[in-house]
Amino acid sequence: MSTVRSKPPLNPVNTAIFVGLPLAALILVPFWGIYHGYDSFQWLWALAFLYLNGLSITGGYHRLWAHKSYDAHPALKWFYALWGAGALQNSILIWSSDHRRHHRHVDHDDLDPYSASRGLWFSHMGWMLREYQSNDPDFSNARDLQRDPVVMFQHNHYVALTVLMNVGLPLLLGIWHGDIIGTVLVVGLLRLVVNHHVTFFINSLAHYWGSRPYTETNSARDNGFLAFLTYGEGYHNYHHIFQNDYRNGIRWYQWDPTKWMIALCSRVGLASNLSRVPNFKIQRAILDTQFERARRKLERADNSEPLLASLEREYQLFTESVNQWKALQAERYERTVAELEGAIEERKAALLKKWEHAALRTKFKELEYSLKMQRKRVAMLVQQVQLQAA
Ligand SMILES: [Zn+2]
Ligand SMILES: [Zn+2]
Fold first, then answer.
1. Domain span at residue 112?
2. Do 384 and 308 lie in a common domain?
3. What's this protein's family per the entry (predicted)?
């Protein structure tokens, strides 16, 4: 890997935004705080803006437009487009196109626009400060978005919208509140800078710090603490393997306000077709990663042939379960097609089908359970290796 790269020239607009604004916030916000002070009205509005911007980026830019993990009502799209413009992270079109490239070429030095392999600083914000080739606009991967009128309106009026949301709204709030400077500093400036950096953590820290339960083929990590800061996007290892799932934190207790917001929107008719990865596939990914890890450990350990043989037997069983699952999926698909073809059948047949569906569901559940048990057995095998090595 080349370590010496000639750096392209600075991008003046981005440098002003991403270096100038944080510096201004660092100086002006404490200064005004000491001489004038802030009140809870301003802090609460700043927090509200922070979440409105953040959720529009994660729920709108990211999970709706970049990954198409659900469909949204036009009202929700307009909401995301406006508050997303307020996050000052470029238009939906540019952001999503970059992000699709990030997933497609993750960790590639030249093709991933914010590749973690180029360092923490580069992936956090260095990539935006200079005219890197990987930033050249190329919307060939976002033709679908170019057909979306909300996306194109926001793209074509981006500057006006972002000024309205970042300057206009805080200014109005300040006039209403009777402290223009203080409100603009906290709700406008400080909130914007905080929102920038927490979102950037997803590209930087979430590719360095955390666990990799689902895949080790890329640098993305799961990290509950980062999820708390990033509106649920910290479960990034899961997200990189199952990018079309509307959830990032799949367990009910995992902090993912974006997933909760989307689920709530679907309840009130603002979102539909929420895509979820089947539990079996998730279990399969975890087990696959565990096999990979166990194999590496065993190959390094002394006298591990018997354990390695057990592991291979387990792997054989795993492959069989996966094949059975695929066969069941195919069966389910065929039945659905047959049902659609003969939609007007008598009630008796419908009842029989219901029973068959239940039986099929049981088979799926059994397979899921067998993978769960297998995960435990593989974990025990790894423990044995560790004991042997100790
Ligand atoms: Zn990523
Ligand atoms: Zn993504």
1. 12-272
2. yes
3. Belongs to the fatty acid desaturase type 2 family.
